[in-house]
Amino acid sequence: MATRRGARCVAPFDRRVVSDEALEFLRACQRRVPCHLAGGAALAGAYLGHRVLRDLYIFCHDAIDHRQLAREIVDIGIGPDVLAWLLKSFPVEPLPLMLEPLTVDELREYRDRLAARFRSLASPQ
After folding, report:
1. Which residues make beta-bridge pairs with 59?
2. ∠ at Cα 64 (58, 69), nearest 5°?
């Protein structure tokens, strides 16, 4: 039953909304610091169940926990090298909807520069 403070849902979380891998990532974060799923994934998975989501918004309960999680996220499996690899596989065509229109070449160049920055962060200094 829902309460005003610390509301919780009655229905079980709709597992079609967030992948098993994403939920395991969330659980790994929760084993490190107090945090919870927020945003569209939480709303759709717990209450509405109307769409499949590919992004997660993880809400940390205080700034110290947030900084700790950011430092430890490499241990969870999302290091700069993995981010660079994921970014390189991000499509630039067809063009996504953007606030500021870019050409395919501009978007590709931005993506590649960002991936290179992640790769440099992943390399030992």
Report:
1. 36
2. 45
pLDDT in tens, 32-61: 899 887 776 666 665 555 556 666 778 888
Compute φ and ψ for 58, nearest 5 degrees.
-105, 120
CB 79 within 8 A of CB 71: no
CA distance 114 to 117: 5
Is 113 in contact with 88 (CB distance < 8 Å)? no
SS3 state of residue 115: helix
Give the domain ranges of the chain: 1-77, 79-125
> Which uninterrupted H or E stretch holds 59?
strand 57-60
